[in-house]
Design brief:
Order of helices and strands: EEEHEEHEHHHEHEHEEHH
Helix content: 25-40%
Structural class: alpha/beta
Distance between the termini: 10 Å
Strand content: 15-25%
Length: about 270
């Protein structure tokens, strides 16, 4: 990989003086290593309340790892993460469970339980974390399924669903607790272009209807350009660029240009 002149392309300023007062999520100096591989390296990132932030980068660069750190599915080796004025990385178990209720998570493979019906999958969080009656929980699950275009599918098993329908069911489960943030891990991976675009439309629809903050990990640039308010590029363990869709299209940053053009030649390398 060719070295960049960092004086010309410095890392974007992604720090705030007072994380408690910041409206959104603050990731500061987060590092993560798996064995000999350094995945995140003093990573800084700001996620503003109400925006759709898309995190792009090559496969294996740590996008999903960064996403999982936000809700502490993974623990950082170093650094801090703040959400809604709370230092997530310092919370005890009970406080962490409470802060996770702010978040919905659409996993890459939807992560539905095969032995449960679609409705039971969506109901699970409410059964675990509310004192609602069975009737109210069932009604809420059906409401969320209808919201993602899966009305009357609550009695189906995940094996009866297409890939796109599984993503929708996973998204219904992600919104059932009325989260303030939705984390999307590669929401269009493995889907055909038409189904992918329908998922993109659904992300936009939910962001507008629910007023949520959306954090989307993808390497699908057509999707990123369609849904993003802002795009951040992760490479070599750090956010190397952050900007609006127009700023991403127009920047001369060689890493960004190589990625969005899909070229094997450039500072990102071919492998």
């Amino acid at each position: 990989m060719a070295d960049l002149d960092l004086t010309r392309y410095p890392l974007p300023d992604q720090r705030v003086a007072d994380p408690v007062a910041f409206s959104g999520i603050v990731i500061q100096g987060v590092s993560k290593r798996f064995g000999e591989k350094q995945v995140l390296k003093e990573t800084d990132l700001l996620i503003h309340k109400g925006e759709t932030l898309v995190i792009v980068g090559r496969s294996g660069e740590g996008k999903s790892v960064l996403l999982k750190h936000i809700v502490r599915l993974l623990e950082p080796d170093e650094g801090t993460i703040w959400a809604e004025g709370h230092e997530v990385t310092a919370l005890g178990r009970n406080a962490l469970m409470d802060i996770r209720k702010y978040f919905g998570f659409l996993f890459q493979g939807a992560a539905l339980f095969d032995s449960m019906t679609v409705g039971q999958n969506v109901e699970l969080m409410l059964k675990e974390h509310s004192d609602w009656s069975a009737e109210k929980i069932s009604a809420r699950a059906c409401e969320c399924l209808a919201q993602v275009g899966l009305a009357n599918s609550e009695d189906k098993l995940p094996s009866e669903l297409s890939g796109g329908m599984k993503k929708r069911a996973g998204l219904a489960r992600a919104i059932v607790m009325e989260p303030q943030y939705i984390l999307y891990d590669e929401p269009t991976t493995g889907l055909d272009p038409i189904t992918s675009d329908a998922i993109n439309d659904l992300i936009i629809k939910l962001q507008k209807e629910l007023g949520v903050t959306s954090i989307v990990v993808t390497h699908d640039m057509p999707s990123a350009f369609k849904i993003a308010d802002r795009i951040a590029m992760l490479s070599r363990g750090q956010i190397v660029f952050s900007g609006t869709v127009d700023e991403v299209r127009n920047t001369d940053h060689p890493m960004v240009q190589q990625f969005i053009n899909g070229s094997a030649q450039g500072p990102l390398g071919a492998f």
